[in-house]
Write a structure and sequence with these properties.
The complex is a heterodimer of chains A (about 400) and B (about 300).
Chain A (H helix, E strand, L loop, with lengths): L1 H22 E8 L6 H20 L7 E8 L4 H13 L4 E4 L3 H17 L6 E4 L16 E3 L4 H13 L6 E7 L2 H17 L4 E8 L8 H10 L3 E4 L4 H13 L4 E4 L7 H8 L5 E5 L8 H14 L6 H17 L4 H8 L3 E3 L5 E4 L6 E2 L2 E8 L13 E9 L16
Parallel strand pairs in A: 1-2, 1-3, 3-4, 4-5, 6-7, 6-8, 8-9, 9-10
Antiparallel strand pairs in A: 10-14, 11-12, 12-13, 14-15
Helix pairs in contact in A: 2-11, 3-4, 5-6, 7-8, 8-9, 11-12
Chain B lengths: L1 H32 L6 H18 L2 H27 L4 H23 L15 E5 L2 E4 H23 L1 H11 L1 H6 L4 H26 L6 H16 L4 H20 L4 H5 L15 H4 L3 H12 L11
Antiparallel strand pairs in B: 1-2
Chain lengths: ~400, ~300
């Protein structure tokens, strides 16, 4: 009797599992959910889960329900590969990741190797935030698509903006000590030299990634250097704590950042009291976005309690759905083929496209500053009463940089 | 330049004193048990989380007093019901026990407070600028941390050197059998010392929480550097731990402030081999300098600066 029951149970489970798997598409979300990167990893997860719910309500991917599988990589490349392998074994065929270009480089290698060894089970890697240029240049891969503007594009826009700020005389560079931070410092040096040769670079610092809890020694050094502006690519707690230490020391400088809009950033800027002297570059400014985007953002904030830090994730998921629906498949190769060269209207408005040559997404980029809100502005950040204000915009076509990618297609 | 030196010194002393608040308890417990307590930094983390929990419900000041006591009570319980039973099984069991305990505490903290940093705030009564020097401000809360650490050091010193209890503890650390013969309850003294060490770590956590970041990885971030402190200072030596804490605090802060690299030192005659290594500045090396110091001290003086025993 027992044996027969077991047989029936096994039979049922064999029958049930594939049927269940057939109705869902699992997307592995590999990002930090603990440690120093967790504050933004959690926000990313909320964003993707919200997007999955939205797309599921609209019919899912080619009729299949999307399920986001959270995988904690602790911002560690080795741990990411363990999680990716776990996801692959679990039937995940699409992974998405953003925090840490060191992680992204490891993942893109791993995905290429995995796909070579497992024909028919290919994995697609959607990168929403790792911005080291190398990922769409020397290390580009058919399986990797990037929705965030790469570091060079961002620095190009930032330095073009700085070109028009004659007050800038002395600049201090402070970045995280890994591939992305190194890329920011070298590009910043090169581009400033070209666009504003009169600017003196009074400091060029790197610090350990997501390990510093007290930036006071670094701020004392910036202060002593006499810098009037700081350029930093710091993200996660590294930007929030850097600004917090600056507030404590009363550092009066302008900040040109990649990610001051991340979790904890606005709170720290408010503490510094530097209204509209902290700049960030992003693909969307909630206070001057299109009506549709503002409505979406308001609903997102009401439900999740956080700012939409990743408009690019919206672009990513919408394009994924378009590609899957057009290809009538949820497999990696047909989706990738449809994504190549795909054009859409970006979440925050304006034409945008996925370049076929290197799988880099080009979209309008905006420079914004944080401070006292203009009358009529809708969104403040983190309950500070201050908000982001649009300062300058760059069209997608003006952000295009050449690539050295030699794509190998299957 | 003067400004940089002044503030680096302040920051360095503050960091050093914070390290000492942890190292003092750890080194005393080492003298007593003969093994390193891997869970010691976990008590620091618990102090921060308890402080946060009380701050959010009642206010900072109650947390400042209650959190260390609560952590001390947990520490005493760990010694009484955990370590004391394991003592007869030898050092390896004790070591493994504290090692496991550190993971258990981290998991429990994550279960209760989540993996994200919690919003442990500086009390409004201390949220102002203490002083302004060369146009740089120094927050009052940091001065408060420094004062607390100094007061704690003074209290610990007086308690150990000038009171009867302190004398008995000192004697028990080195000659436990003789102290027991004289009629003192040595196991109770051990529980007391362990609890007090945990309470000091808890106090450090409760005051460091708002200034640094209260998050589940805070123990793991500070743990390795703490072992460097007590090994460099000399295992079991309180004075050594004090000196080593300050030295490491200052070295690390000043290293960040320095820009020199080997390439600059050698100028144009720098040999081309080794490539990028020449370009690395002292500031970039700052995080590993303490470990370098550890290796050098172990080679040159295995007992540490002021230690008397080798292991």
């Amino acid at each position: 009797m027992n044996v027969r029951m077991l047989g029936v149970a096994l039979g049922v489970s064999f029958f049930v599992v594939p049927a269940f798997a057939g109705d869902t598409v699992k997307i592995g979300y590999i990002d930090p959910l603990s440690g120093g990167g967790a504050s933004i990893g959690e926000i990313g997860l909320k964003t993707f889960q919200y997007l999955a719910d939205e797309l599921n309500a609209a019919g899912g991917l080619n009729g299949k329900k999307i399920e986001i599988v959270p995988l904690d990589n602790k911002t560690n490349p080795q741990e990411s590969l363990v999680q990716a392998q776990k996801a692959a074994d679990d039937g995940v065929r699409i992974i998405t990741q953003g925090n840490g270009s060191s992680v992204a480089a490891a993942l893109t290698d791993w995905v290429s190797k995995y796909n070579d060894r497992n024909p028919g089970k290919e994995i697609l890697y959607l990168n929403y935030a790792a911005v080291d240029p190398v990922l769409t240049n020397a290390k580009c891969s058919f399986w990797h698509f990037r929705w965030d503007a790469n570091s060079d594009i961002k620095m190009s826009a930032l330095t073009t903006f700085m070109k028009g700020q004659p007050d800038i005389k002395k600049v201090y560079l402070i970045n995280q000590d890994y591939s992305f931070g190194q890329s920011v410092r070298t590009t910043a040096r090169a581009m400033l030299k070209e666009k504003r040769p009169d600017i003196e670079i009074v400091g060029d610092e790197v610090h350990p990634l997501l390990k510093v809890t007290d930036f006071s020694p670094y701020i004392a050094k910036i202060k002593a250097s006499g810098a009037d502006s700081v350029i930093t690519g710091n993200w996660g707690q590294d930007i929030a704590l850097l600004l917090k230490a600056a507030a404590d020391a009363g550092l009066q400088a302008n900040w040109y950042t990649y990610y001051a809009n991340g979790a904890g950033g606005p709170t720290a800027i408010k503490q510094t009291g530097l209204s509209h002297r902290v700049f960030a570059i992003a693909e969307g400014v909630p206070n001057s976005a299109t009506e549709a985007a503002q409505k979406w953002e308001a609903e997102f904030r009401a439900k999740e309690g956080v700012t939409l830090f990743y408009p690019r994730a919206v672009n990513e998921m919408r394009m994924l759905k378009m590609a899957a629906d057009e290809a009538k498949s949820t497999d990696a190769i047909p989706i990738a083929q449809k994504l190549e060269g795909m054009k859409i209207e970006a979440f925050d408005g304006g034409d945008a496209f996925m370049r076929k040559d290197d799988h880099q997404f080009f979209q309008p980029m905006y420079i914004m500053s944080f401070g006292v809100m203009d009358p009529g502005a809708k969104f403040d950040e983190e309950g500070t009463g201050w908000g982001w204000k649009l300062i300058g915009a760059v069209k997608a076509n003006d952000t295009i940089l050449p690539t050295t990618c030699k794509m190998e297609r299957p | 330049m003067l400004q940089l030196i002044a503030f680096s010194a302040l920051n360095g002393v503050l960091y050093g004193m914070l390290l000492f608040m942890l190292a003092s308890g750890l080194t005393l417990v080492f003298s007593m048990m003969g093994v390193l307590n891997f869970a010691h930094v976990s008590f620091y983390m618990l102090g921060a989380y308890f402080g946060f929990e009380i701050e959010r419900r009642v206010g900072f000041w109650l947390g400042f007093f209650v959190a260390p006591l609560a952590v001390g009570a947990i520490g005493a319980a760990v010694e009484r019901f955990g370590l004391r039973r394991l003592h007869r099984l030898g050092h390896v069991s004790e070591l493994l026990f504290t090692f496991g305990l550190a993971f258990v505490i981290e998991e429990i903290v994550q279960m209760i407070w989540g993996k994200l940093p919690v919003d442990y705030r500086v009390p409004p009564s201390l949220d102002f600028v203490a002083f302004r020097l060369f146009d740089t401000t120094y927050p009052a809360y940091r001065m408060f941390m420094l004062m607390t650490a100094v007061a704690m050091f003074a209290a610990l010193f007086v308690a150990l050197k000038r009171t009867r209890v302190g004398l008995v503890i000192q004697a028990a650390l080195t000659h436990a059998d003789m102290v027991a013969m004289l009629g003192h309850d040595v196991p109770r003294i051990f529980t007391l010392v362990f609890g007090a060490g945990a309470a000091l770590a808890g106090l450090a956590g409760a005051i460091a929480g708002p200034a640094l970041v209260t998050q589940p990885s805070m123990a793991a971030l500070l743990g390795p550097i703490l072992f460097v402190v007590i090994v460099v200072g000399g295992l079991g030596s309180l004075a050594g731990a004090f000196v080593a804490s300050l030295v490491i605090g200052l070295i690390q802060t000043f290293a960040v402030a320095m820009n020199g690299s080997l390439a600059e030192l050698f100028g144009p005659v720098a040999p081309p081999f080794m490539g990028d290594l020449w370009q690395v500045t002292i500031a970039e090396l700052a995080p590993i300098i303490p470990y370098l110091l550890l290796v050098i001290v172990l080679i040159v003086r295995p007992t540490g600066l002021m230690g008397t025993r080798e292991s």
